[in-house]
Amino acid sequence: MRLELERRSLRLAQPLQTSYGEVSERELLVVSLTGEDGVTGYGEAAPLEPYDGVSLQRAQAALERYAPVLACAHGLNGAQLVDACRRVDDLSPALAAIDLALWDRAGRISGKPIASLITDTPEPTVPVNATISAIDRSGAAEEAAAAVVDGFECVKVKVGLGDDAGRVASVRAAAGPEIALRLDANGAWGVDEAVRTIEALAPAGLELVEEPVHGLQNVRKVRERVAVRVAIDETAAEHGALGAGVADAVCLKISRCGGIGGLIAAATLVRASGAEAYISSTLDGPFGVAAGVHAAAALASRGPVPHCGLATLALFADIENPLRALGGRIAVPSGPGLGVAPY
Ligand SMILES: [Mg+2]
Known about the structure:
By secondary structure, the chain is an alpha/beta fold. It is 39% helix and 21% strand. It is globular.
């Protein structure tokens, strides 16, 4: 199997402010895998260093180490190929690129969308949230009102940025009482500060607060002290976190789980612990988001999936968005494999 790599740079229409810093551009590695049958599958590595600590150079180095492994691997299935790559360099964002390209290839060979390779009964669409990127009250209110007009039933607001109370109140006022309002602090707070802030924001009506604090023990303490549902995201990378049952929900990422196979396995552990699993992109490109949509559609056939953070391609300035949300849902691509064209 031949591996090829290309760098891509995607500019955001406006910078996204988070408690780990501002993101204005995404650099990704597009991977293609071509078998002896001539069929090519595509994937992408989407590390985000300030968020996951993995640089693009580090991901590229791992992928370059996978190339000879894949070149001389004959007779192995997809999971075995990913395992063979993991043995030379265990780096989730790079393994995800390989996993995606293998699933894409498998879909193209069989003529089926990936969701239909995972389960016989995938849901045709996936519910998604809108992301509010403005950090001023009026800008946030405008985006929230636009999201409602577009049919979204859930909006996500980044917090831990200053003026959280003002922004959250503006979003609630603009979005109306029905919409689910989700906060993401990206671990900005300590335990006491998290409890205080969540209690202060709760009257706005919150669906959940994602990653109020970092660390399983801290999340457990916060959850015991607040009435609002708590989700983990970054903390889900901690050893034993997926089955720990410390949160009401767990946000899973294609990149962190090492691809679709790893994500489905992770979701199974999460659900067995009694928590809900949903999927978000890490500002992934079209291949990563498509992978998330296929995985969510397959998971939804076996239990409820809360709104997913997969409507993120709309945040980019220069690309045609093949996975646009309509009425707050993204349709699962019907073409074979990931179902999105190389970009
Ligand atoms: Mg998050």
